[in-house]
Amino acid sequence: MSSPGTVLLTGAAGRVGTMLRERLPGYGYRLRLLDRVPLPAPAPGTGSATGSGSGPEAVVADLDDTAALREAVRGMDAVVHLAALPGEESFDAILRTNMVGTFHLYEAARAEGILRIVYASSVHATGFAAVPGPGEPRVGVGGPHRPDTYYGLSKCFGEDLAQLYWDRAGIETVSLRIGSCATEPPPYERSLSTWLSPDDCARLVHAALTAPEVGHTVVYGVSANTRGWLDLAPARALGYEPQDDAERYADRILADPAARATEHDRAWLGGPFTSRPDPWPPAAG
Q1: Are the CB atoms for 272 and 128 separated by under 8 Å?
Q2: pTM exceeds 0.90, yes or no
Q3: If we measure between CA atoms, which residue out of 182, 97, 184, 175 comes closest to residue 141?
Q4: How many CB atoms lie within 10 A of CB 210?
Q5: Is 151 among the catalytic positions?
């Protein structure tokens, strides 16, 4: 997709989905919105996929409704796939929504001839990668998967699924390993390294939708943070030019004892996800 066109945005009611449905029309995209819950009524003239000018079309459907999903994909130029459980849950819940649901999305795209997907992966696909120390190079995308949770595992699956559908079906995907995508100011000391601002999120997705010949490309998705841990070179190669830096909030964040980094934040990319016991069962015996 070399220029803005029609895009299905799944998970449009979520935190990142809300950021993008407010910002992508400004890049010229006409959106169709999908979520399993109803969305607020859109403002007139905010990027209808049908070209009616009455706001984006909204589809209420679950990812396991394959007929509705295929109908939602039909006629689109590309898909931005955000729909997922956004944090750790039971394995069965993660399996159904994040893994099987993503498979259903790719099958619908294959059936309807969609050739570009932007997939919301996560830094938690590499959550047990070590935080680089002072003077050490930033973490690149070439290392192995090291998920920190069932949630992170599901993002590894999504990346591998994207690779399979590129190799077997010719569907191009940019997998965005999103860091801490939050409103301003970012909430924690860890965010000074992992923050992706709402505006930079839209810049990154726009680059991922319009870059030529991506095959299956994996990039880290963060802003241009002075304290950043993650290598942005692959994202910049797509045309991403981040404009924000969490450093401007550093004094405020560091003055709040509740926001200070924990031992796990300082050791692993996944931060608190590497220490959460729930819903992990207690060890036997």
Answers
A1: no
A2: yes
A3: 175
A4: 18
A5: yes
